[in-house]
Amino acid sequence: MQAFQQLKSKIFDKAALKRKINLWRFRDDKIVFTNGCFDLLHAGHISTIAQAADFGDRLVLGLNSDSSVKRLKGESRPLQNEQNRAILLAAMHCVDAVVVFEEDTPEDLIKFILPDVLVKGGDYKPEEVVGADIVLKNGGEIKLAEFLPGFSSSGLIEQINRK
Asked: Which value, to the nearest 10 degrees, does the dihedral of the CA atoms of residues 118, 121, 124, 127 take?
């Protein structure tokens, strides 16, 4: 049970996250941010998250809330609630913090965190990355993780429904 509690300690609300980020900045840690719905965690997600961790010292994951996923993906989603998705992400050793956000995009969260590096999957173009302008204006950088083709939550759901 102690290990599970340690996982939960990596899930933050914004106020607690701000304190943790201030500590990391005091230590001159390079803060990396990426985000997503992560409804059905798959190898494509893992690849992007692991690559993101390599771009700095501390990795913060923004997680779309259940209501946000529903608006973005449809009424039948998410398949897992935000607490379950957050625990799965927190279980990754390269993840330092998980924070749930209610909006459809992480723009407000990016303004709040002001990461040194903003990462999205290689299926994006730099000009499509929400918050890129904020990070660049603050002296940060945008990185695209190498895309691992053939993996998507929607594709997995279709495959399950065909069986």
From this structure: 10
